[in-house]
Amino acid sequence: MLRSQQERAKPHAELDHQVEVQPAGLNRKTHRFFDRTNLMLFAGVAAVRTLDYTSTQHFRRLGNKEVLLTNSIVDNKPLFAGIEVAGTALSIGAAYWLHRTGHHKLERWVSIVHIGVGTFGDAHNYSLGPAH
Ligand SMILES: [Zn+2]
Question: 96 CA to middle of ligand 1, Å?
């Protein structure tokens, strides 16, 4: 009873204004998860993972030993390729979780660090000469 009296007391113009403002306030500024930047970053992550695979095969052919995984894992090509795909998926999954929790800067950094560390490892793998 009291509420309806208050509403009636307000001019109609003011009520209409409140209705218009509310949805805009809920729609905070964000970005789509698969925006241009993330697509480029994920492509970069997939690229360094692919290079990790090829560079590891390269140094194994030269007789060098794998240090992070075991020789038997990296010599099992389907298994090792699956690990590279899982690593890529895990990275994108972590970025998605950060995106959903509103950490949009960290979301980008997951991919940037992954690409940075990956590029370093790939360059190292390709720099290895034949084993002595
Ligand atoms: Zn985001």
Answer: 7
Q: What is the pTM of this model?
A: 0.75
**d(CA 69, ligand 1 centre) in Å:** 32
Ligand 1 centroid – CA 47 distance (Å): 21
95 class by beta-carbon count within 10 Å (0-12 exposed, 13-18 middle, 19+ buried): buried
Query: Does the pLDDT value for residue 66 go beyond 60?
Result: yes
Quote the ligand 1 centre to 41 CA distance (angstroms).
Answer: 13
Question: Number of folded domains in the chain?
Answer: 1
∠ CA 131-47-92, nearest 5°, is 120
Q: Which amino acid does the sequence have at 72?
A: S
Q: What's the average model confidence in pLDDT over 30-44?
A: 97
Ligand 1 center to 29 CA (angstroms): 10
pLDDT number for residue 29: 72
- Residue 40 domain-assigned (yes or no): yes
Residue 5 domain-assigned (yes or no):
no
